[in-house]
């Protein structure tokens, strides 16, 4: 045992609350199936294709060079998809969304446990309400829902990281070897679970171990913490270096800057842990406000060249989330305790990845890192928000209830974010069956390179490594080139919502589109939604348009 609250046992968690969190979380992440039976995002086709190869091979090859071997940082997730398909008899492409929905409820469940721990000194009704807020908020909050509705190894990584942090926090409080063993097991799987999750797990665990050692500085803790931290980083970096994972170069390319951000966040975490409540509230509030300010600034001017600006609709539904973030700042002092430092580390650890991405360079790779790293902040931030609201309701009931209502409204208002499509994002998350069928037809029946917009090209390339080029269509839509004079998958939606490009959707006049289609040979017609394959004898210019 150690620390200020180690002596008391953890509060009981209401089983009905856990059932409600699981039910709402899974239902929210299956909502996309009402729009399309296909998985939510285009990355899903990569994982489904890998799972199909595993099933065809009849096992998981340990040789990474084998034809059926998944990507080196996707072994566990792809194997899980293949196993779920084999058990249910449902093809990987159609079971993937359900698998992800089940994985995605792990962080909300861990949030419920964290909140019960940090509100143990409040009336039981306050603790239960706060736990319900945290769990259900993570189940429906728009940005987190978007991230965990997407079929990706990242959702698997988020689930494993939540278990890892919970186990480390429990091991610190109780001294239990069982919790420590669970933490070691979860940490050992991170490199093969997902590359970004492993990176953030290292940041979070380093922060958590530093806080735990600083709170109870014994030689045994110091040595054990150092071995655990260095062992995790050695395993992760060594594995990615051994397999030469290209995506791992994001941090390795600027290793000094990355190490500096890690050191800064560790020092910041320890300083906050020992600071006054006023400082503990002010610093996170400034960080959260700064993040939203960056999002708003990107609506005015693209902070990353050749990338899309923040869409007005996305901004309008995201900015109100400052209400729960302000509540999180109020709740941070409650995380500055032995039982709370695990949640505190999940707030601060990912900030090192975000800060690194914002300062390392203005390239698409770092933009992707910054956006994806924010997904790991939600668990700790909403735990802090729930604790802050519970404490505020206890001290000042009227103000606390008003603040809670504002936070709930903001969270619910953000829930539609995953379904906004090209109105909010420079890409289409949802793939409709007619689009998939047209891409499959082109892949199967067209010889040589064919052309398509970004979305169709991603679907075809991710699922069947199709010989498809985006440049001819993108250049034409932007007015930078002539119409494609080669086999092309075209969509009537180019004239309505537009075609996706890296800088946002681009529309064609209907007369221009229809004239171009009619001047070629339509060899495939997808029906009422007008996805067609237009054949022309020319050769597509391969490559990806900027």
Quick overview of this protein structure:
The protein has helices at residues 15-29, 44-57, 75-88, 92-104, 106-118, 124-140, 142-149, 153-174, 177-193, 195-215, 219-243, 249-252, 255-274, 277-300, 312-318, 322-335, 341-360, 364-373, 378-395, 397-414, 433-445, 454-464, 471-478, 510-518; strands at 450-451, 468-469, 488-491, 521-525, 531-535. By secondary structure, it is mainly alpha-helical.
Written account of the structure:
By secondary structure, this protein is mostly helical. The chain has two domains: 15-42 and 105-423, no CATH class; 433-535, no CATH class. Helix content is 65%, strand content 3%. It has 24 helices and five strands. Strands 3-5-4 form a three-stranded antiparallel beta sheet, covered by helices on one side. Strand 4 and strand 5 form a beta hairpin. Helix 5 (106-118) runs parallel beside helix 8 (153-174), helix 10 (195-215) runs parallel beside helix 13 and helix 14 (277-300) packs antiparallel against helix 16. The radius of gyration is 24 Å and the shape is globular. The protein starts with 14 loop residues before the first helix and ends in an 11-residue tail after the last strand. Mean pLDDT is 91; it is low at 1-8. This is Sodium/phosphate symporter. The chain crosses the membrane at residues 15-32, 98-115, 127-146, 155-173, 193-214, 221-240, 252-272, 284-304, 310-330, 342-361, 373-393, 402-425. Keywords: Membrane, Transmembrane, Transmembrane helix.
């Amino acid at each position: 045992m150690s620390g200020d609250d180690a002596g008391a046992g953890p509060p009981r968690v209401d089983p009905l609350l856990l059932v409600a969190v699981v039910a709402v979380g899974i239902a929210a992440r299956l909502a996309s199936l009402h729009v399309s039976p296909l998985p939510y995002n285009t990355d899903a086709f990569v994982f489904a294709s890998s799972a199909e190869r595993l099933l065809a091979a009849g096992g998981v090859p340990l040789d990474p060079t084998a034809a059926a071997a998944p990507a080196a940082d996707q072994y566990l997730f792809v194997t899980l998809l293949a196993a779920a398909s084999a058990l249910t008899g449902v093809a990987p492409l159609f079971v993937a969304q359900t698998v992800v929905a089940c994985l995605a409820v792990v962080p909300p469940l861990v949030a419920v446990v964290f909140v019960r721990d940090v509100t143990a000194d409040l009336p039981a009704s306050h603790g239960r309400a706060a736990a319900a807020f945290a769990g259900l908020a993570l189940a429906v909050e728009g940005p987190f829902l978007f991230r965990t509705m997407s079929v990706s190894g990242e959702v698997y990584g988020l689930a494993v990281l939540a278990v890892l942090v919970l186990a480390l926090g429990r091991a610190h409080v109780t001294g239990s070897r069982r919790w420590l063993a669970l933490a070691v097991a979860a940490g050992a799987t991170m490199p093969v679970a997902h590359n970004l999750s492993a990176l953030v797990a290292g940041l979070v665990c380093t922060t958590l171990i530093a806080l735990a050692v600083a709170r109870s500085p014994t030689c045994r803790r110091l040595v054990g913490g150092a071995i655990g931290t260095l062992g995790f980083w050695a395993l992760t970096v060594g594995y990615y270096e051994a397999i030469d994972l290209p995506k791992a170069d994001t941090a390795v390319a600027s290793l000094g800057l990355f190490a500096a951000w890690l050191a800064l966040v560790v020092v910041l975490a320890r300083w906050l842990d020992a600071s006054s409540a006023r400082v503990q509230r002010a610093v996170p509030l400034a960080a959260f406000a700064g993040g939203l300010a960056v999002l708003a600034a990107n609506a005015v001017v693209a902070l990353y060249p050749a990338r899309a600006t923040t869409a007005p609709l996305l901004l309008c539904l995201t900015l109100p989330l400052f209400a729960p973030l302000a509540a999180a700042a109020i709740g941070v002092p409650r995380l500055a305790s032995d039982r709370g430092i695990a949640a505190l580390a999940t707030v601060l650890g990912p900030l090192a990845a975000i800060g690194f991405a914002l300062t390392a360079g203005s390239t698409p790779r770092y933009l992707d890192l910054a956006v994806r790293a924010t997904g790991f902040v939600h668990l700790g931030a909403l735990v802090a928000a729930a604790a802050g609201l519970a404490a505020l309701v206890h001290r000042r009931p009227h103000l606390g209830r008003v603040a809670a209502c504002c936070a709930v409204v903001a969270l619910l208002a953000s829930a539609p974010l995953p379904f906004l499509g090209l109105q909010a994002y420079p890409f289409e998350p949802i793939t409709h069956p007619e689009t998939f069928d047209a891409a499959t037809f082109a892949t199967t029946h067209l010889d040589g390179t064919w052309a398509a917009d970004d979305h169709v090209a991603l679907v075809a390339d991710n699922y069947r490594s199709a010989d498809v080029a985006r440049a001819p269509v993108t250049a034409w839509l932007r007015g930078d080139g002539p119409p494609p004079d080669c086999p092309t998958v075209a969509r009537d939606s180019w004239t309505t919502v537009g075609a996706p490009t890296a800088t946002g959707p681009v529309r064609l006049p209907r007369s221009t589109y229809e004239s171009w289609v009619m001047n070629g040979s339509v060899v495939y017609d997808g029906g009422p939604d007008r996805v067609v394959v237009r054949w022309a004898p020319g050769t597509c210019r391969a490559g990806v348009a900027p």
